[in-house]
Every structure is written in structure tokens, then in C-alpha cells.
Design goal:
With 233 residues, the protein is α/β, with parallel strands linked by helices. The chain has a single domain, classed as 3-Layer(aba) Sandwich (Rossmann fold). It contains eleven helices and seven strands. It has a seven-stranded mixed beta sheet with strand order 3-2-1-4-5-7-6, sandwiched between helices. β2, α4 and β3 form a beta-alpha-beta unit. The chain binds S-adenosylmethionine.
């Protein structure tokens, strides 16, 4: 078996938040068939999850992101020898440039909470996958709905606006159960929370250092990571 390119040092250099590799592993375990032909990795950031997906399915990966350019991401995939199977696209999830049913799976890690909190968004997003496809989302979340008392802890590092991007599993359930386009298979807290955050906080960058203060003040007991597993009807 070929060694993974996702070494600890490579992962550390490319993290943009809690360890996305641990998140995608747990999210997809048993839910993403290895014979998936074409998966969309929505909000892939610098592409760690796209690389993981390429190493775990036989098909190809569309690495789609808004903030990271396709050129930068594609250069990294090419350099790693994955350019034939991982294709970078820069696009907004709310206006995806794919025809209906292009993919047979959609994965999104630490991204859907940025753009998916309005009703109807899931219907637009899942139009790009075929009926019956898995739609696997992992998001940072809260153990209870945000209130002023929690903001006293979170406020050490984050603004209220930033925290409003984080919801509880029940809030995601209430939103997504309104959709006629997806079936909810499972929504719940992920086991990798502690390690995924520890890996991020150990990174040598200003964002990670900034997040440390709130975690030290107790944010870790108010937050979680949430796996949302859906099937496109
Ligand atoms: C915290 S980063 C996480 C990146 C990556 N998934 C990871 O875990 O390493 C959030 C990502 O969401 C993406 N994103 C935010 N809004 C988006 C949108 N409307 N459409 C597509 N991607 C979006 C950003 O481009 C960014 O890369």
C-alpha cells in the first residue's frame, strides 16, 4: 500500500481549524463507498480533505472552495502527484457551476456552517449530486444554543457574529428536516473533537494562537463537532 501524503507536518502546515483529516475520516467511515466515482469536496480550503478523499475512493475528487484559488490548490495537488484525480475549482457553494447530478457523493468539512444556515440552501447544494448519493457534512458546533453567558467565554477570542455561525445538532436537524430533497440519516456529536482541536491549537500560526485563549477559558466544554449525514432523495 502506498504511504499517505498526509504526514503530520503536511497536515499541520495546511490546517485552517480543527484537524480536518480527523473529521473527514470519522465523517466518511462506513458512509462513503470506496467505489464512489466522483465526489465534490465543498469548501475544501487548502485541500487536505480532498487529498484524503483521493486516497480513500477509487474515483476522482472535485476540490471546490471559495477563498482558496483553484490555481493554488491545483498546484499543490499536481506537486503531490494527484493532479489526474483531484481537480480544483473556485466557486461559491450558493452558485455552483456544476450541472445537476454531476457527482455521486458530496462531502463538506468545517465549511457548511459558513453558507448553509438559511433554509433552501441544502436543496440548491444537493442538486449537483445524483439521487441516492451520500451528503456528508461536518461542522464545528455548540452543545447548547448561544447565549450571553456563553459569549463571556467565547468573547475572549471570538465576536458574537463569528459565534452565530455555530449551531447545535438540534438546530441543524430543525433546519435540514424542512428539506424535501434530503433524508436525514444521522446528526450527532463527533468523537474526534478533543484531538482535532488539540492538533489545531498546537499549530504555529496567529489564528490558532488566537483561538487558544477562549479554549483555555472553557470554550471546549461548550463546543463540539457535529457530523450530519444525509442522503439525496
Ligand atoms: C475554516 S475553512 C475550512 C477549510 C477546510 N474545509 C478545512 O477544514 O481545512 C472554511 C472554508 O469554507 C469555505 N467557504 C466559506 N464560504 C463558502 C462558500 N459560500 N462557498 C464555498 N466555500 C465556502 C472557505 O473558502 C474556507 O476554505
Amino acid at each position: 500500500m502506498q504511504a499517505s501524503v498526509l504526514t503530520d507536518a503536511f497536515v499541520r502546515d495546511n490546517l485552517m481549524g480543527p484537524n480536518a483529516v480527523l473529521m473527514v475520516e470519522e465523517l466518511c467511515d462506513g458512509f462513503l463507498p470506496t467505489d464512489t466515482r466522483h465526489v465534490c469536496d465543498l469548501g475544501c480550503g487548502s485541500g487536505l480533505t480532498s487529498i484524503w478523499l483521493a486516497e480513500h475512493i477509487r474515483g476522482s475528487v472535485c476540490a471546490c472552495d471559495l477563498w482558496n484559488t483553484a490555481e493554488a490548490n491545483q498546484a499543490q495537488f499536481d506537486e503531490l502527484g494527484l493532479g489526474q484525480r483531484v481537480h480544483a475549482v473556485q466557486a461559491d457553494a450558493l452558485a455552483l457551476p456544476f450541472t445537476s447530478g454531476t457527482f455521486d457523493a458530496l462531502v463538506s468539512v468545517d465549511s457548511y456552517n459558513y453558507f448553509g444556515r438559511q433554509s433552501g440552501v441544502i436543496d440548491r447544494v444537493v442538486a449537483c449530486v445524483q439521487p441516492g448519493s451520500p451528503v456528508l457534512l461536518a461542522v464545528p458546533g455548540l452543545v447548547r444554543p448561544l447565549d450571553d453567558q456563553m459569549m463571556e467565554v467565547f468573547g475572549v477570542s471570538w465576536t458574537r457574529e463569528q459565534m452565530e455561525y455555530l449551531w447545535t445538532a438540534n438546530q441543524w436537524h430543525d433546519l435540514l428536516s424542512q428539506s424535501a430533497e434530503v433524508r436525514i440519516d444521522h446528526i450527532g456529536a463527533m468523537a474526534c473533537f478533543e484531538q482535532a482541536w488539540a492538533d489545531w491549537l498546537a499549530c504555529d500560526n496567529d489564528y490558532a494562537r488566537g483561538d487558544c485563549a477562549a479554549m483555555r477559558a472553557g470554550a471546549d466544554s461548550l463546543m463540539n463537532l457535529i457530523a450530519i449525514r444525509l442522503t439525496r432523495k
